[in-house]
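Researcher: Please translate sequence to structure tokens.
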Amino acid sequence: MQKIFFFLGGLFLLAGLLYPFLRKFNIGRLPGDLHYQSDTLTIVFPIVTCVILSVIVTLFLNFFR
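Model: Translation complete:
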């Protein structure tokens, strides 16, 4: 269990460090992601982005199993 938390912490650290480069790829703004914007409120539901990231993480974890 400790290995999983250590791995997830490293993954979050890596994502945080690479964030300036990753936002150039429009992660969270894919077709199928729902955006609602009014004068005072913005709501984003990145449904397709979550599905794609889930598939990538699942394949990665199954590959290194």
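Researcher: Any highlights?
Model: The first strand starts at residue 34 and ends at 37.
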